[in-house]
Design goal:
The protein is an alpha/beta fold. The chain contains five helices and 16 strands. β7, α4 and β8 form a beta-alpha-beta unit.
Length: about 220
């Protein structure tokens, strides 16, 4: 499915049924960002006293389906994709902040990375997982980050790097690939980070305390 059903001119928040970072959701919902719940994610919002604008998914995980208005429900019955992917192919926004799609279920976390890779060219997503944030890229990258920040790079497929600046361990000429070399636990040594890529897609994983800085650079 390729047609977007929900169009937002401002960033949106996606909330899944896994481990939700409630403080992050409350902060950015307080700025007026629309809330899109993925199925049982609506129950997390209800517990936090927040109201989703829309609930997307097959709706089989809602604790009390009758609680919600019909105009809040966007049922999608196909079973070939996760609720996270259903949200992505249904929502168009400048940026999507996603939480509740990883956590204690390791298979859910792997599925979330799969979806990030699949939509890397069409969506700008910041995925929150525990104390980290994750973003997927398939091209060059430029970021401003404080010196000393942890900066991990994980290849989503075979990724060939041309060069990097601002990192303790340069990525110059590296070929990163799952099962081969990866790039966890690098460190920022200059405030301006630049990464040049020949080919491939990769995730950048940062501490969650960098969230405001990252969002300000991509909105």
């Amino acid at each position: 499915m390729s047609n977007k059903l929900l169009h937002y001119s401002i960033p949106g928040i996606l909330v899944g049924g896994g481990d939700v970072h409630v403080e992050v959701v409350e902060k950015y919902a307080g700025r007026g960002w629309p809330l899109v719940a993925a199925d049982g994610g609506a129950d997390h919002l209800l517990e936090a006293g927040l109201e989703p604008d829309v609930i997307v998914g097959d709706l089989d995980s809602l604790a009390n389906p009758g609680h919600w208005r019909s105009d809040q429900l966007l049922p999608i019955r196909e079973q070939n994709t996760t609720d996270f992917e259903k949200c992505l192919y249904s929502v168009e926004a400048p940026l999507l902040l996603a939480t509740g799609f990883t956590g204690s279920r390791f298979d859910h976390s792997l599925a979330a990375l799969h979806v990030m890779h699949k939509y890397v060219r069409s969506h700008r997503v910041v995925l929150i997982s525990g104390d980290d944030l994750c973003m997927a890229f398939d091209g060059n990258l430029s970021l401003d980050l404080s010196v000393g920040s942890r900066f991990s790079v994980y290849p989503l497929n075979k990724t060939v790097f041309v060069s990097s600046t601002g990192l303790k361990y340069p990525l110059d000429g590296l070929r990163l690939e799952s099962g081969g070399m990866i790039g966890t636990s690098n460190q920022v040594v200059h405030e301006k980070i630049q990464v040049t890529v020949e080919s491939g897609a990769y995730c950048v994983i940062l501490p969650i305390d960098k969230l405001d800085s990252i969002l300000n650079q991509f909105i």
